[in-house]
Amino acid sequence: MRVRVQIDVRKPLKRKKPVLCNGVRSYVKSKYERLSLFGFYCGRLGHNDSFCEIKMMTGADTKELGWDLSLRAQS
User: Fold this and answer.
1) Tell me, what DSSP letter sits at residue 70?
2) Which contacts of 28-35 are long-range, i.e. CB under 8 A and separated by 24 or more positions?
3) Torsion angle of the four alpha carbons 31, 49, 44, 67, in this order, in degrees rounded to the nearest 10
4) Confidence (pTM)
């Protein structure tokens, strides 16, 4: 299914969303089109991991990425 939504790009992108259908709760994984500069550590748009403020402040290792390329939808 393809859905167009409006999101606040200052917040991290959602990886999955809970959905209630016929009284059953399940999760739907999200994929995003036109994903350009993206911080895989913090999940926010507009920068890459080299310039991630949150990553620099915490001194995190590159092995601890919270997001991956599975967020990108195939065109």
Assistant:
1) G
2) 29/70, 30/71, 31/70, 31/71, 31/72, 31/73, 32/71, 32/72, 32/73, 33/73, 33/75, 35/71, 35/72, 35/73
3) 40
4) 0.66
DSSP code string of 5-56: ----TTSPPPSEEEEEETTEEEEEE--BSS--SB-TTT--BS--GGG-HHHH
Summarize pLDDT for 23-50 with one digit per residue, the tens: 999 998 888 888 888 888 888 888 887 7
Q: Sign of the CA dihedral 68, 72, 73, 75? A: negative
